[in-house]
Write a structure and sequence with these properties.
The structure is a single chain. The protein has about 450 residues and is mostly beta strands. It folds into three domains: about 110 residues, Immunoglobulin-like (Sandwich), CATH 2.60.40.3070; about 220 residues, YVTN repeat-like/Quinoprotein amine dehydrogenase (Methylamine Dehydrogenase, Chain H); about 90 residues, no CATH class. The protein has two helices and 37 strands. The strands form nine sheets. Strands 1-4-3-7-8 form a five-stranded antiparallel sheet, with no helix packed on it. It has a four-stranded mixed sheet with strand order 5-6-2-9. It has a four-stranded antiparallel sheet with strand order 10-37-36-35, with no helix packed on it. A hairpin with a 5-residue loop joins β27 and β28. The longest helix is centred in the N-terminal third of the chain and has 7 residues. The chain starts with a strand and ends in a 5-residue tail after the last strand. The relative contact order is 0.10.
């Protein structure tokens, strides 16, 4: 790769104050011969080292994501990396020990340019296992990572990237297809679902020991939802079109609730008297016959059945009584449900996946997968997905930015400081710090 260093008299990016650092600038280690990093977007972004503009090209590209490996030559002492793009505020990054350590590792850092008004900043991008389907915070530092196409479930430290593999029995792990998880503070546990075994696995939140498995009589189990009042777990079964009611106290399935279609997301009402369930499809999961059900969780009786064109995926409860939000993946919107009536539809980018409300329940975060590959969603599409933030009071988008290939899992830390998303087809997790005014 050819490198040309030019003297620069005009340095527009220097007008932007440098990012605040936790530690002082340090000299690069002698073993570091190249600055290795990902850059997004790489197109039309000028790269500077210590104020001098470089003429460089990425070694690898994936849409707007580029990987660079720049020889440092005879440079000594601290290094400042400058990034300048016409559509984004310039950045000046004083490289730290953590940057150098990652450049020397197999997991180089990502530097992402975001709008000046962005209420978030990317702090880390970590390479993880195959097809991270969801992310769930166990505490303010660690997230649970079930992998759809890997023989393990892991905990990720969002600040260090350290991954701890959970002690899933080998006969279970070999069947792969781990999907989602739920944390139960009152029991000191968290549970992980697995499609291929139609089951849910329990772990201690304290020491991560494996506590046991409940295997259901359903098929293709996915979403878990905890009912604190009844002390029960609900597990939606995709292929058998029902919900398993699990009792973690006796570790068994109590009964099933039959449904008129393919279930995915669930949420209990404020008073616990109703379980709202969104259906991804009717007879088939791809027929676009979505439905919203309101069910008596004690009897399984369907109290409300609303049909929708599209595929409903995820549902959350709002701040006001009888207010809910659910995503319609195939139609590209978030529906606002008040008193069992849809009162508004908030358009999203392509294929909205997971949705999560912040602690104030004012801001709704949405992961959108982006346009599908014409052959299958299991292959990268023509464009990256996006993360979007809605002000649900005003019903408008207040922020959006690009993710990777199919942002899917999404969660907010309990203290509201960090947002984590999984890039399903990039085997990566992104960690964002939430800034004022959203925090």
């Amino acid at each position: 790769m050819r490198k040309l260093i030019l003297p620069v008299l005009f340095c527009a990016y220097c007008a932007t104050p440098p990012l605040k650092q936790d530690i002082q600038k340090v000299a690069r280690p002698e073993s570091l011969t190249h600055l290795k990093f990902y850059l997004q977007p790489w197109q039309q972004t000028a790269v500077f080292i210590n104020g001098q503009k470089l003429v460089v090209k990425p070694l690898e590209t994936n849409k707007t994501l580029g990987f660079f490996s720049i020889p440092v030559g005879d440079l000594t002492g601290p290094i400042t990396l400058g990034l300048q793009h016409v559509d984004f505020p310039a950045r000046e990054i004083e490289l730290r020990e953590t940057d150098y350590a990652r450049m020397l590792s197999l997991d180089p850092p990502l530097y992402q340019l975001l709008p000046d008004s962005s209420p978030v900043k990317l702090v880390h991008r970590w390479q993880v296992g195959k097809q991270p389907k969801s992310v769930t915070f166990l505490d303010n530092r660690r997230v649970i990572l079930p992998y759809l196409d890997d023989k393990k479930v892991e905990l990720l430290d969002i600040h260090t990237g350290e991954r701890s593999q959970l002690p899933v029995p080998a006969d279970i792990a070999n069947k792969e297809s781990f999907v989602e998880s739920v944390v139960i503070p009152s029991r000191g546990e968290f549970w992980v679902s697995q499609m291929s075994t139609h089951s849910a696995h329990a772990f201690s939140a304290k020491d991560l020991t494996y506590l046991g498995t409940i295997t259901t009589s359903g098929k293709w189990s996915k979403v878990l939802h905890w009912d604190e009042g009844r002390g029960l777990l609900y597990l939606s079964n995709w292929n058998s079109k029902d919900i398993s009611v699990l009792d973690p106290g006796v570790m068994k399935e109590l009964r099933k609730i039959s449904l008129p279609g393919v279930p995915r997301g669930m949420v209990l009402s404020d008073d616990g008297k109703a379980l709202y369930v969104v259906l991804f499809g009717g007879d088939k999961d791809d027929d676009g016959n979505g439905r919203l059900l309101k069910i008596n969780p004690d009897t399984g009786k369907i109290l409300l059945d609303r049909k929708f064109i599209g595929s409903l995926r995820h549902i959350v409860r709002g701040q006001n009584p009888n207010t809910y939000y659910f995503s319609n993946m195939s139609r590209g919107y978030i529906a606002v449900l008040v008193n069992d009536e849809v009162v508004a539809e908030m358009p999203t980018y392509h294929k909205p996946n997971t949705i999560v409300l912040d602690k104030t329940k004012r801001y709704l975060y949405v992961s959108t997968r982006g346009p599908n590959n014409p052959e299958t969603y299991l292959k990268p599409g023509p464009a990256f997905g996006k993360l979007q933030v809605f002000d649900v009071k005003k019903q408008v988008i207040v922020a959006e930015w690009e993710g990777g290939d199919q942002p899917t899992g999404l969660d907010l830390s309990p203290d509201g400081r960090y947002l984590v998303s999984s890039d399903f087809l990039n085997e990566a997790v992104r960690v964002y710090e939430i800034l004022p005014p959203l925090r």
